[in-house]
């Protein structure tokens, strides 16, 4: 039986927050796009509302249910609870193999017709994904489908809103507006004119070494870092002073300015305004690609260094342009992630990377054009859900 044609389908996303902001960031972007662009009635089940609050101001962390941007947000307090078939959405998404409450699954099995059940997997560039995308698995008398985002037309593509490019180009064409946007965070005109770098990474990144290289740089660098990110290195740079939102400190050529966490749309603008973006996990990683600017990715760490395999798989696809591999890009990415057996120091890596910025920037824009050819994840997901019925 097909999905309803007299109305947009209803959809539920279950999200357990593991990577602080990355998991909920992905699910929130997807939920907003499904509702805003496709008219889908979305319910987002989230177990960690305080993390959600950091990227969506206005969320009530005490509420069991609330509305945000047209999306129903439910606090996922645990695995208990009874549900009726009428409570079940037309499409049910479990993000990254999280366990949906047993009562909800039982109601799914009782619903006629059964909902489309999707396991939305994590993003990877590994080749095996193309063979696993859209595979099925029988569960509880139903069929679960595995849906993989990815970098080719044999995957679900990447999250991207329809008007994203238009908004980005308009923002970047307005120099005064861009300066005003940065100015609200205390960024001075001198910092606007410097090499602007956004920094979002996990605690084990070699930030202190990078700061040392930037201090000795021949040109000024303005590093914009959210409060609490790279806390030890930033606190050491501030020499014991409170590294809170609004604080700034200059040493040598480097100015470090601490920013508050901002809503997702403002984080996009931050990426668009900076010359280089250090990003982490999955959500900011994808947004950096749509920003079309040079970036370095800090991948979420996994046991036995499995994340290094994923990093190398991405670099094999990404760090190559018409002239061949971009050696400085590969070296910096491997060193940033501790994936190189022997890596040059950052006072060597950074100047080489900066010298390649024009080439890396041109390649980033070419990569963006190529990724657009794969469609966008939300539209591809809805088309797949419709085709499976």
Task: Lay out the secondary structure.
Layout: E1 10-15, H1 22-38, E2 41-46, H2 49-55, E3 65-68, E4 71-75, E5 91-95, H3 102-110, E6 116-120, H4 128-132, E7 136-139, E8 142-147, H5 164-173, H6 175-183, H7 189-193, E9 195-199, H8 207-215, E10 221-226, H9 231-237, E11 248-251, E12 254-259, H10 264-273, E13 276-280, H11 283-291, E14 295-298, H12 306-318, E15 320-321, E16 324-325, H13 327-336, H14 346-355, H15 357-372, H16 377-388
Parallel strand pairs: 1-2, 1-5, 2-4, 5-6, 6-8, 9-10, 9-13, 10-12, 13-14
Antiparallel strand pairs: 3-4, 7-8, 11-12, 15-16
Helix pairs in contact: 8-14, 13-14
What does this molecule look like?
This protein is of the alpha/beta class and 389 residues long. It contains 16 helices and 16 strands. An 8-stranded mixed sheet has the order 3-4-2-1-5-6-8-7, with helices on one face. The model has no long low-confidence stretch (mean pLDDT 94).
């Amino acid at each position: 039986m097909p999905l309803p044609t007299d109305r947009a389908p209803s959809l539920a996303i279950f999200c357990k927050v593991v990577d602080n902001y990355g998991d909920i960031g992905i699910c929130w972007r997807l939920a907003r796009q499904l509702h805003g662009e496709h008219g889908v009635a979305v319910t987002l089940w989230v177990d960690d509302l305080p993390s959600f609050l950091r990227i969506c101001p206005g969320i009530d962390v005490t509420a069991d249910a609330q509305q945000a941007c047209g999306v129903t947000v439910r606090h996922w307090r645990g695995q208990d609870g009874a549900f009726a078939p009428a409570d079940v959405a037309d499409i049910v998404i479990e993000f990254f193999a999280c366990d949906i409450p047993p009562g909800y699954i039982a109601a799914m099995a009782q619903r006629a017709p059964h909902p489309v059940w999707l396991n939305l997997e994590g993003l990877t560039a590994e080749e095996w994904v193309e063979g696993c995308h859209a595979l099925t698995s029988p569960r509880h008398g139903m069929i679960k489908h595995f849906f993989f985002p990815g970098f080719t037309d044999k995957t679900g593509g990447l999250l991207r809103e329809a008007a994203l490019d238009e908004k980005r180009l308009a923002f970047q064409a307005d120099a005064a507006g861009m300066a005003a946007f940065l100015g609200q965070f205390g960024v001075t005109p001198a910092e606007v004119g410097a090499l602007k770098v956004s920094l979002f990474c996990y605690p084990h990144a070699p930030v202190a070494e990078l700061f040392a290289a930037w201090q000795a740089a021949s040109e000024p660098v303005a590093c914009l870092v959210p409060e609490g990110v790279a806390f030890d290195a930033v606190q050491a740079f501030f020499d014991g002073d409170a590294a809170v939102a609004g604080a700034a400190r200059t040493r040598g050529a480097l100015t470090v300015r601490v920013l508050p966490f901002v809503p997702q749309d403002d984080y996009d603008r931050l990426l668009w305004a900076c010359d280089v973006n250090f990003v982490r996990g999955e959500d900011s990683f994808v947004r950096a690609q749509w920003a079309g600017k040079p970036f370095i990715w800090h991948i979420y760490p996994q046991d036995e260094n499995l994340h290094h395999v994923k990093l190398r798989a991405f670099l094999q696809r990404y760090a190559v342009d018409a002239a061949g591999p971009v050696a400085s890009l590969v070296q910096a990415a491997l060193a940033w992630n501790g994936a190189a057996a022997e890596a040059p120091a950052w006072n060597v890596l950074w100047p080489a990377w900066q010298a390649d910025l024009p080439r890396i920037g041109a390649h980033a824009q070419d990569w963006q054009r190529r990724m657009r050819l794969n469609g966008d994840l939300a539209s591809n997901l809805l088309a797949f859900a419709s085709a499976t019925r």
